[in-house]
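Re: the 238-residue chain
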Amino acid sequence: MYNIAVILAGGIGSRVGGETPKQLLPLADGRSILEHSIDAFELAPDIDEIAVVMHPEHISSLQKLCQNNHWRKLTKIIPGGTERWESSYNAIKTYAAESSNLQIFKSSNDTLSLLLHDAARPYVSQRIIAEVCQALQEHEAVTVAVPSTDTIYITEHNRLTSMPPRETVWRAQTPQAFRLSTIAEAFERALREGNIAATDDVGIVHRYMPETPVFIVQGDEQNRKITYAEDLKQNTPQ
């Protein structure tokens, strides 16, 4: 199994505020969110290669980080799209094109996998990365999630419509990992339909390849997403 970590850093993080994309903002130790996210996969023994999908206007900033950090595994910088799914798809297309024939990855010898990870989750643990890679040995699609500790309301027009049993509700995290053949096929089906209606990559597989089970690795609360300015002030990853 050859595992490629794809760090999705193509967004602008408008909820944090300011002109600098949030993935380039510093945490409490002075190093950026993106640096910490890349570090996590650089240190993971099961990760063979790293690619970063970056907003085209900020690729030069990433190149400077590469010069300062000397990451050995980071081999590609891929321009991002206007939406999250486009950024993921740009990475998938890049690796599919590198294989001389995508059909070889649709055989029982499929050995190339992509771990798609939000750059804004710099606290991902080595335990999570290792368990995702281990799960990929047996499963075509793997995600990370944590059980919800809150009661969840399903609403419509600010009115409660239903309350799913709390024990059935989990909150999604990343990385979300797939055999290349699986995620490529899911995107191909979605694009043929012409309306990609999913908020993450697991959603693409779940909707357009319902015959493919998605295995869940339990995450942890530390693997939180940096969303607001106050999140930057919390403790940095260990």
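The longest helix spans residues 84-98.
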